[in-house]
Amino acid sequence: MSNEITEEAVQQTLQGYLTIATKTGELRGVNVEFTADGVTWHPLIFDLADGAHPIAARARVHRAGWAEPTHAPELWDEVVPADEGWRALWFARPHVLFGAHTLRAALRRTFADVLGDRREPDDLDAFPAPSAPSPMPAPDDGEAIDWVARVNEATTLDELNAVRAEARLARAVTLPLKQRMDARRDELSADAWATPAAREQAPDAPKRREPQDYRPSENRATRRKAARKKGGRR
To answer: How many CB atoms lie within 10 A of CB 87?
Structure first.
């Protein structure tokens, strides 16, 4: 993508991604959905108020030979550009810009062998955050923070987002660390795409009547009585 801040530049870049993926002969389809409440998802949200935006987007990319499509969920607050020009365009055209960003992420993960880890001007961390506070001081013992370990220890998206924020403040975000953060986010977000199966406990099987053969005399009497009721003979 060129550094020109236009919707056309975004569309041309996305088309370039799709063209490269299509040339592999393995692209089987893509789709993007948005949510304004975190519950319902739609290709477009028609009732957004002026200045409002979807809170999240998700993209699926289907590649031949893969058992499942690649999922790429993204939160608006995590990926909206810090640059004022790009940010204004995102707010003006949230479906186009946010959707293109999410779909590019899904395409990169699905076709990493031909797309690599490309970075575009409106991608996360492409611009420094505005009014960023001073870097966090190093620990008193002088030991460097193992950010990858911190990422791996995160068990929820909230914990991962907190680690991401700390790393940004410390200016410790590198490309390998960002890739690990994205991978961990995918791992933690996997449940958002799965439809939980109903787990109802099966009713207990009726208890089998225990045989009464150890009481032969009573069994014979019972059988005779039953036969007389039915009009039979014993």
So the answer is: 17
